[in-house]
Amino acid sequence: MQAPRFDDVKVGDKLPLLALPAINRTTLALYCGASGDHNPIHIDIDFARKARMPDVFAHGMLSAAYLSRLLTNWVPQTAVRNVAIRFTGITHLGNQPTCTGEIVEKLEVDGEKRVKVAIKCTNQYAEDKLVGEATVALN
Question: Is it the case that residue 2 has pLDDT exceeding 90?
């Protein structure tokens, strides 16, 4: 992977979009197995309905993982200095996550060149599901 160079990026530049397939029960089951998070609200429709939800829904951390993939598709994992996210909505079955990022600041910290990136995960209706910011180092 060839990471972008600090001198070649500017505030307002966008990261390559990460569009994902619709969330389905298989996605949730696979994430449960991979993460060890077997909360029944994500896999048991009866449990979800008792909690007054229409159906199961995606783990918030699944969408967080997608945002991490957005970043590591752009720069190596070792360049990521900080990620802060806020959960803003539920990702329901059938939602198609799309992750985006935009450079909002260029800075230098202890001699290291970095950029701050506003990151977001939305669904096909442009509803925010996660919003946040990441700081990555660039050469």
Answer: no
Walk me through the domains of the chain, giving residue ranges and CATH numbers.
Answer: 13-22+60-137 (3.10.129.10)
DSSP 54: S
Angle, helix 25-35 to helix 60-74, in steps of 10 degrees? 80
DSSP 115-136: EEEEEEEE-TT--EEEEEEEEE
- DSSP-based three-state secondary structure for 5: coil
| Listed residue (36, 55, 35) closest to 44, CA to CA | 55
Angle at 137 between CA 133 and CA 139, to 5 degrees: 145
Percent pLDDT > 90 in the chain is: 98
Give CB contacts under 8 A, 24+ apart, made by 33-36: 35/59, 35/61, 35/62
Binning pLDDT at 50, 70 and 90, where does residue 1 land? confident
